Amino acid sequence: MYQYNQQDQTLIEERVAQFRGQTERFLKGEIDDDQFRALRLMNGLYIQTHAPMLRIAGPYGLLSSRQIRKLAHIARTYDKGYCHFTTRQNIQFNWPKLEQVPDILGELASVQMHAIQTSGNCMRNTTSDPLAGICKDEIEDPRPYCEIIRQWTILHPEFAYLPRKFKIAVSGASHDRAATQFHDIGLHLVKNADGEIGFKVFVGGGLGRTPVIGQVIRPFLEKKHLLSYLEAIVRIYNLFGRRDNKYKARIKILVKEAGLDTIREQVEKEWRLIKDYLELDSERIEAITAQFAPPDYDPDAANDQSFSQSLEQNPDFATWAKHNTVEHRIPGYRAAFISLKARDLPPGDVTESQLDLIADLADRFSFGEVRSTHRQNLILSDVRQQDLFSLWQQLVSAHLATPNIGTATDIICCPGLDFCSLANAASIGIAQGINAALDDLDYLYDLGDIKINISGCMNGCAHQSVGHIGILGVDKKGEQWYQLTLGGSSENEAAIGERLGPAIPKDQVTKVITHILGVYIEQRREDESFLQTVNRTGITPFKERVYAHH
Amino acid sequence: MRIIKDKQIVEDNWHFVADDTELPVGDITVSTARWRRDKPVLLKREGNIGLRIDSTEAVEDIAEDLPYFRLIELNFSTFTDGRSFTQASLLRSRFKFSGELRAVGNFMVDQIFYLSRTGVNAFALKNSDQLPVALANLYDFSVAYQASATG
What we know:
Chain A is an alpha+beta fold.
């Protein structure tokens, strides 16, 4: 993975010093609340219901074992012993003290981490495919481009005060695992007719209050023009994005109101004026790419016989291996998911002792690297199949082996009313209710691939509008109610879920979900997935069942 | 009043003249509306002339007249309005404006480093107590990933 050079290190250390000074001046009353708000947000710091929340960047989801140990240390020393992984591959601490945040940032800087631009109206952490570099359907590894974009976005002087936040995601595979069509800019590495690899550029996607699927602004962009094209888009957005209403300030609204053709014309005009000054040379691409060179794979990994024996001898292990590991482009290796969706824990949460164990397992089995995923799990990406059994045993001992990846209990969930000052309703409790109702593994596996996403308010941090089943918490006269949608998807066939009907009360949510799943079982044909069934039947049969009971 | 210019605290004698106010002697800045309306008069008077532009104005529209101006003031209505950063960048890198580029209005001292990177070289603060902090903030970072707008 990418290792900081002296310049990278100096920059984040100077950033810590800057924020330390700003925090001191704020505490002395020399910076007002509004100004400090903007400054702290661009250092990842929110003021929440109970305490500040600090969001730390996980650059395109890639973390070293050393960084994971540092997160464990911070959780122990400055927080209540755990942290939370988000849908944008970032890490959140829910209980830091404002005065200690500069110290936490200093600790992070010592392991090449930071919280720069993880919030605020600026360019955010660039996200990517958690299987980058190891999946079989990859056109090219997106991570070098993510790193190039990371550097370009960090402290970009022109774009720190945009109309609203701005998110970029990059995918290098044919299967989109990075929800790129729901980002302000989505980039797909593609091959053109001449066999040359470049980027297909999407613009104006987004979730939140107004979910919009991104549109193609340029079908093919040469690699050398990556940064100039991004700069042109963000510049047009900075100049023309709405600033009169924060709910209409994202680029998706600009694209919608002006029309894609107009925006394309403006962007291309701007781009032609800057493209020769901001060219990405091939030496730079090669130098960064070299930092993502494949690890030293064991050439004998595929000769192993023990894996198939373990599968035969231990059904629990076989179940886990089936659901929580995926194939790897190198024979004899697999990528192993670490499920952060245990039944009794909030989705995406992980404790300090689990983090320490994960770091050790990464060192032992996966070249010292850990990845975080869009669906709030972790991955050890390069595990020899012969090591999977030992890995599984260790994960089981730490409650990290719930064999539910890709199933209906692998729920994306925001912190909700329990932690977040924006939330209208609880989300963690809803996830736990569904999880408890689906404790029969045979039934869970029979249901197959179902993505349930739960957000506690319409800001939609858990991407409910693209869940196969989306659950959105709303406030009705001080009570928590839930709005359901069906048929959303953040993958290649991007779709926004259709509203099932009127909101339902909190105590009915679990029952309603079981009804919806029951309708699927009745209606499905052969191997049809939940999403395929919903797409074929429409929402009517689900609606009839759910509202017949009310 | 004292301002920061080229990384120093200096005394400054420029004045902004509102659209309906009589022109005083000395160095003045005016709005683009007044510039367009009174251009011949403004050019005939003694003293230097500068322009104050709001974040909503397109800098392309004044590109041809740039040689007349010794100073351009970028007027922040609120510190959250980032359009002025792009205006500065375009004035320096695209339109090669080489005069003084000054931030005025409701920007904050914690934006001064970024502003300097986009080509702003002078800062008129509302509160002169903040001059030392502002000056120090110009040195917040010794490194950057992006080229400066002034090269």
